[in-house]
Structure formats: C-alpha cells, structure tokens
C-alpha cells in the first residue's frame, strides 16, 4: 500500500507538464473554434475575411458625444454584450452609460484627497479599467496604487486590492476566467483571482514604468514598458517572459490583435505590428499621425492609444492630431496601411471597438491621460461613439454565413 501511495505521489516531469498543457490548450482552442464559428454565423460576418475592405468612413454627423466627466477621460471599456460603456477620468469618477440611449445608468463619484477611509470609490486619477468576459466584474486602477473591484451590473463596490507601490496603469482579465492582470509604474505585473478575492503572484522584468497591458484567452499577458523600450509577453504558468525591441521612444500602449499578433504605439510617433514568434516588429510606421511644431523644430504626434478589432485586420490609433486613424493590416501582418481618418479634437486617451465590430468608442480629453504636458482648450472631455459603416457587400451578407 505504501509503494502504491508513493507511485501516486510521483510528480510529473517538466516535459510531461508541457505535453499536458499543450493537449489542454489544443482542446480549449477546438472548443473556442466551435464557439466562434457559431458566433460568427450569428453575427452575419466572418472575422477571417478582410473586414477593412468593408469599412467606410463614418458620417461625422452620426458621431454621438456623451458628456458627464469634468476632467479628461483616461480609460473606458465596453460590456461583452455591447449594451453599456464604463468610463473613468481624472476627476476620479466612474460612469456607466447605456449605448443605445446615451444616458447615464450609474455614477460612482470621485472623492477628495484624504477621504480614502470613508469614501467608497477612487480619490485619485483613475488610469486603467477592465471588465471580465462574462460581464460580472469591473476592475479599476488609480494613481493611488489601488485596484477596486465592482459588480458590473449594479456598480456595487466589492473589494479593494493593495500591493502595487505606484500608479496602476494597466488592467486586463484573462478571457473566460476571473483571473486579473495588473501593471504599474512600480515596474511589476501582478496576478489576482477576483472571484476568490485573492492575490496570486508578482512578475518582475521591466526596467521602467509599465504604461499598458492586454491579454486574451491564453494564460499570458503583454505589457508596454515605457522608456525601457520593450514590449514583453509574460507566460504565467512557466513564470517566463519574452522581450521585444523596436520603438525609439517611450512605448505608451499595446493591444493584442489575436493570440499571435499585437500592435503598440510610442511617443516617437511610431506604430509597430508584432508577431509573438519574432523579437523585432513585423512592420513599423514612423510618424503615424504626422508631425507638429515650427519648421525645423517638428516633433511627431505621440501615439496615446491603440485598439484592435479582435481577430480581424483592423487597427485604430489615437493621438492629439485632431483625428483617430484606422489602419489595415496587410497580408501576414507585414504591412500597416492607412484606411481613413475620423476627425476628433483633443487627446485620444482610450479607444475600444465593440465586440460585434459595429462601433468604435473614443475617450477624449483636454490632456494626456498620464500627465499635463499640453492642454487643448477647444477639446471637450467626452465619450464619442462612432458607428462603423460597412459597404453593401459587407452589410448584406446572409445571416447564415453562406
């Protein structure tokens, strides 16, 4: 009996663990593929097709503007069913909006500095936000090093995560789970289990403040490392990281396009497309939003935000160049070609495509989300909902996907 027990307790080798995880991942991919196939047919479009060829420049008169925050919007997310938008700003407030009517459904007011003990909510600039893929939890991070967890439906405060030593600048839930990743100016990435109100682990590697974070279904996340000039992919189970070099300036934002490709933007005005199997960018567009300044003193417009239409070939970038620019990813993600510009005055601090891909939400502010280097007085601190129009061929596709 003792020998049998010992045999049962023998731990699997590293090779066996890799094999088991690979089989599990393939099983999840098959299940996800079946689910997405059904979803694509219901949605009446195939993301595998060239979505960019169906998109048309929107009518500026159709852009809806939602006003509610007193100071610049810093971050936003869209609920999984595309019915609600959550936004946050430098006024420390969080607002839940109804997409169809544009009305406020709930407001979580910001508190004054020094009232942390009694105020339910943030008392410092809210810099990051994430919503779980089942729409149950909303996570928000602020300049006071705090992460707050809310019930997304009722906006009820659930709990508070402490542990970061500086501003929390990036948050993302692993899709299909309640595992939360957070990134901070303290150069660390932390992993949390929101359902169990628990801290899991901390990952180190960046040499400068982390400015952005994203994740999808795999148990890994990507981060942009500001002035350390790197984008990193963190493999959580293996506790390892991949380091990518490409930009010349501070890398301020990063987003995954699919499980194998991502896009990043930097304050040197460049936008880079990456494949997770190569350490250098597949392609880089310099001065993606052109230059500004007097002749001989021109400076590129900083790339302040990027967004991707998940599993498609469409990317959006934002700056303070008076427009949001949409891009087409070329074959094999080796080219990035401009599609069209959408005029918007102000700092584009946050961009999000709806899950169905029928609208783009923009968080606009008079200032950059991380500082006060410039102020654009004519800009309005607002949320803009931009409908994405399709060509007749794209919009008239049969619902059964045939």
UniProtKB/TrEMBL annotation:
InterPro entries: Rrp9-like, WD40/YVTN_repeat-like_dom_sf, WD40_PAC1, WD40_repeat_CS, WD40_repeat_dom_sf, WD40_rpt. It comes from the Eukaryota. Pfam families: WD40. It is found in: Nucleus, Nucleolus. This is U3 small nucleolar RNA-interacting protein 2. Its main location: nucleus. GO terms for molecular function: U3 snoRNA binding. Belongs to the WD repeat RRP9 family. WD repeats lie at residues 66-107, 119-151, 161-202, 203-244, 244-284. Keywords: Acetylation, Isopeptide bond, Methylation, Nucleus, Phosphoprotein, Repeat, Ribonucleoprotein, RNA-binding, rRNA processing, Ubl conjugation, WD repeat. One of its GO terms (cellular component) is small-subunit processome. Interacts specifically with the U3 small nucleolar RNA (U3 snoRNA). Binds a sub-fragment of the U3 snoRNA surrounding the B/C motif (3UBC). This association with the U3BC RNA is dependent on the binding of a protein called 15.5K to the box B/C motif. The association of the protein with the U3BC RNA was found to be also dependent on a conserved RNA structure that flanks the box B/C motif. Part of the small subunit (SSU) processome, composed of more than 70 proteins and the RNA chaperone small nucleolar RNA (snoRNA) U3. One of its GO terms (biological process) is rRNA processing. Component of a nucleolar small nuclear ribonucleoprotein particle (snoRNP) thought to participate in the processing and modification of pre-ribosomal RNA (pre-rRNA). Part of the small subunit (SSU) processome, first precursor of the small eukaryotic ribosomal subunit. During the assembly of the SSU processome in the nucleolus, many ribosome biogenesis factors, an RNA chaperone and ribosomal proteins associate with the nascent pre-rRNA and work in concert to generate RNA folding, modifications, rearrangements and cleavage as well as targeted degradation of pre-ribosomal RNA by the RNA exosome.
């Amino acid at each position: 009996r003792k020998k049998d027990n010992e045999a049962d307790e023998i731990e699997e080798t590293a090779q066996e663990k890799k094999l088991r995880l690979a089989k599990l991942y393939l099983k999840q991919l098959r299940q996800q593929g079946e689910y997405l196939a059904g979803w694509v047919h219901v949605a009446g479009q195939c993301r595998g097709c060239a979505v960019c060829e169906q998109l048309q420049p929107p009518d500026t008169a159709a852009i809806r503007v939602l006003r509610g925050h007193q100071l610049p919007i810093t971050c936003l997310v869209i609920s999984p069913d595309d019915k609600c938008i959550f936004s946050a700003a430098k006024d420390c407030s969080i607002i839940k909006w109804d997409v169809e009517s544009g009305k406020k459904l709930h407001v979580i007011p910001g508190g004054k500095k020094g009232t942390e003990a009694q105020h339910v909510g943030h008392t410092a600039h809210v810099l990051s936000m994430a919503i779980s893929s089942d729409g149950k939890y909303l996570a928000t991070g602020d300049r006071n090093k705090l992460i707050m967890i809310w019930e997304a439906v009722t906006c009820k405060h659930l709990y508070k995560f402490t542990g970061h030593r500086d501003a929390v600048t990036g948050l993302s839930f692993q899709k299909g789970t309640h595992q939360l990743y957070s990134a901070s100016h303290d150069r660390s990435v932390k992993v949390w289990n929101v359902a169990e109100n628990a801290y899991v682990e901390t990952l180190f590697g960046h040499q400068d403040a982390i400015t952005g974070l994203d994740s999808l279904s795999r148990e890994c996340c990507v981060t942009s490392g500001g002035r350390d000039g790197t984008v990193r992919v963190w493999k959580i189970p293996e506790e390892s990281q991949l380091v990518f070099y490409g930009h010349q300036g501070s890398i301020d934002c990063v987003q995954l396009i699919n499980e194998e490709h991502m896009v990043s933007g930097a304050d040197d005005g460049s936008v880079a497309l990456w494949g997770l199997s190569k350490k250098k960018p597949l392609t880089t567009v310099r001065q993606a939003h052109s230059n500004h300044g007097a002749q001989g003193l021109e400076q590129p417009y900083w790339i302040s935000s990027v967004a991707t239409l998940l599993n498609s070939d469409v990317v959006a970038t934002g700056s303070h160049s008076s427009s949001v620019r949409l891009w087409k990813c070329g074959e094999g993600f080796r080219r990035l070609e401009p599609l069209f510009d959408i005029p918007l005055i102000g700092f584009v601090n946050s961009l999000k495509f709806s899950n169905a891909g029928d609208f783009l939400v923009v968080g606009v502010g008079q200032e950059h989300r991380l500082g006060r280097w410039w102020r654009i007085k004519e800009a309005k601190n607002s949320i803009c909902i931009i409908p994405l129009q399709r060509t007749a061929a794209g919009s008239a596709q049969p619902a059964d996907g045939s």
